[in-house]
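Data availability excerpt. The first of two example chains:
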Amino acid sequence: MSSGARLVKYWIMAGFLAVEQLVPVAQACEALGFAGVMLPDHLFFPEDFSSKYPYSADGEIMWPADAPWPDCWVAIAAMAQATTTLQFSTGVYIAPLREVFSLAKSVGTAAAFSGGRLSCGFGAGWLEEEFTAVGQPFATRGARFDEMVQVLRLLWTGEMAEFHGAHIDFPPVRMLPAAPNVPILIGGNTRPALRRAARNDGWIATFTDIDDVARMLGELHSYRDDGPLAERPLTVQVVGSPKIARDAEALAALGVESVVVPGVALGTDSSTAAVVAGLEQFAERWMR
C-alpha cells in the first residue's frame, strides 16, 4: 500500500462512459470511497479540423470518434440525485464556447440538485472549429472567459446584478436558483491558464511528470502570492492515467489535493461490470 495514497483524494474521470453507465459508476465510486467524479466537455467534433490537441505529442485526439459527450450539468444532476456525499466537477468545461446566462442557469440548477456538491472546472478551449461553428470568436476567448467568470459569480449570488464589460453588458437582472459557493477551478498547463487559476479557486493540471508539475505549481503560487487572493487556499487537482497513483506521495508533497484517473482505463473492457471491477481493484490497491 502506498503511504502517499492516504495523502491525496482520488477522483474518477467519467469521460467516454455511456450515458446509462454514469449513475451506477457514480454509486460505485461513492461506495468505494472515491471523493468525486469529473466529466470532460465538448459540444461536438467537426468531421475535419486542423486544430491540434495540446495534450498529445502529435496533436491528435486520443479518444474514439464515437465516444459519448453528454451534457455535463444534466449528467451531474442525475448522478447527484443517486448519491449523497460524492463531489462533482468538470474537467474541463469550455466556458467561452457558451453564452453566459445559459451557463449560469445550468450550473445553478445542477448545484441545487447536488446540494452544493459541485465545483466548476473551466478551460479556454483549443478546438477553433468548434468556436467558429457556434459563432463565438476564437481569438477573444480568453478575454471573454475572464469576463464570464466575473459575471457567473454575480449571477450565482441570487441578488440583483449588472455588468458592463467589453464583451458582456447587461442591466440589473436576478437569476435563481442561486449558487453562491460554487468554486471555479481553471484547467490547463499553459501560462495564461496558470495566471487565470491564480485569480480563482484552484487549478486542474494534466499530468506530465513530477518535475513539470512542480515547476508549474511554483509559477502558479508566484502569481497567487502577487495577487489579492494570496491568503486564500488554492485547490489543486491533477488528471492522469491510473499510473499517476504511483506518484501520489510526491504530488501530495507538492500540495496536490486530489488526483483524477479515467474510469474506462481501469476495466478490462468498457462494460459497467468491468469498470466497477476496475474501480474496486484500484481502491483496494491505492486507497485502503
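And the second chain:
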Amino acid sequence: MSSLNEGLIQSWIDPKGPVALVLKQQLMPVEGEDAVFFPPTYADIGYNIDTLADGTKVATIDSVGAQANRIEPLFGTDPELAKLVPQVTIDLGDGKSVSLLEAGHRLGDAIVRSSDLKDGAKTAFNEFLSTGDATALAKLGPTSLVFGAWDSRDTQAKLPRLVQSVIRAWNVDVLTRSAQYVPAIDYAKLAVFSEEEKEKSEGNAKSPLAQRGFVAVPATGAHGGIVARGPIVRDVTINLIALRRLHAKTDADKLRRYVLGLALVAATEPLDGFLRQGCLLVPRAQQPGAWEQVTRTGERTAIPLTSAAARELAAAWAAEYGVGESRTAKFGRELAKADLVDKDAAKAKGKAKKAG
C-alpha cells in the first residue's frame, strides 16, 4: 500500500497522474444476512430493478443523485466542514430560508435564478463556458464543482461530477406484502352512514369512506422489499481527469487542490446508512473495502485514504486558496415569475421553429 505522502497527493493533480480514486464498499442490512430491506420506489415503475442476460436481478438502492444530496448538506451542518465552503442562504421571507447546499440543482437550481444570486451565477457559468475558468464558481458555490451541475434553463453550462457514489444490490429476490385495515368501531351502527353504504365501500380502496378510514379495506400485493442473495455494493469514484480540466487565470493548482480537498472529504465521509424506512445499511465489517488509485493503464494501487486525512488536507487547501464569502440572498417572486415567462417564450419559439 502506498503511503499518503506529498508526492502521491501531487500526482492526483498532475496531468500524467492517476485517472481516478475508487472505493468498492460492501454493505449489509443492520438486521444481518438475508434480511429484507427496501429500495426506493419511482413513479410508474416501483423499484428500479434490471434483469441481466443471465436472469440476475440488480436493484438500485441509492442513485448517484440521491447519494450526492445526502452528502452535500454536511458542508453546512458539520461545523468543521462548514468552514470549507461559503455558506450561501436564500431568504424566503417570513423567517424562512433555504441553503444553497440543499438546492437539488445547485447553482443551476430555480431558487438561484429566482434570487439576487442570479446574475452572479450566470456570470460564473459564462466564464466557465468561455474560458474554462472555474474561479467564480469555486468562490460562489464550490460544491457545484464537486457534485456537478447543469445550468439547463439558462447558459447550458455543464459541470461534471467529480464525486460519484451509487449503491446497488445484486441477485435480488423481490417480495410483496399485504395488510388489512379494520376501523376502531362500526360507524354504520352509530348511524354515521347506512349499512348499505358500508357494504358498498368495504374492500373498495377508492371509495370516500375507505379513503377516510371509516370502513375495512385490504391492501394486497404492495411492495414488500427485497432480499439480496448477492452483495450490496457502494461504488465511489473521484474523477481526477475532470478535476484537472478545471482552469483559472491565476492559481489554477490552488483551485484544483481546494476542490480536490472538498471531493476527498465528500467521498470519504462515513455513510449515513439510514436511506429510508426499512433500509438501514452498514459496512460489512469483514469486507470494509479500501481506496485504490487507478492509472491510465488500469493498474490499481491501494492508498491509505481516510476521512480524517481528507479533512486535514481539505482544511489546509481551503486556507491556502481562500474560501468564498458567505452571504444571504433575497428570493424574488418577480424573478421567479419572469423565469416562467422566459421558459414559456422559449417553448413557444421552439414550437414555431419546428412548425416552420
